[in-house]
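_Per-residue structure_
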Amino acid sequence: GYRVSLQGNFFGRNHTYITFPEYNPCKHIKLDPPANIQSNVTASKCQIWWSVPWYLAEILQYELQYKEYSMSWETALNKTPSSSLPQIEIEAAELRSGITYIARLRCKVSENEDSYHSQWSEWSQTTVFQRPGIPKLSEKILNTRTMQFLFIPLSFGTLLYLFWNFKLSSSCFLTSGQKASPVLTFPHQLLSSSHSIICTMGILR
């Protein structure tokens, strides 16, 4: 430790002022900010990493700030890494799709360190990243699925129509009083219904 004093001549007299009676430099450190901050974004997360001197890597703690690029730093969100490793991850759920973000970082000696104490460093240089947009289904796929959803109930309705008409035609009587033969009446009904099916499929296409 050191004793820090201030000496000077004031109004013709020499004076000495004790500024710090016991000053320990290792308890009053201000570090340089982390360097070479970089980022990489995937569909599930954003990874951010940086560089610090190797002999400080195990005793530092960090604070990350990130925000939308167009917003002010007053609206930034803070995140603290859970370890002393020079890296951090942001889950994709915390980022809006298609929006550009900017992040910065600062460091200080960990509170768990007894031999040294420091204040926060200045903020580092920034890194810019963007979460990829969520891919949309192509129009062709959407049209195919729409066709599938429409075709099932329409087909079911057509089968009910055929069954109902066949049932009615089989119970009809001819003008002579004889019952109509299903074999004779069915082809006519089937032809008419088949024409309806073809028209319906033409509309769907």
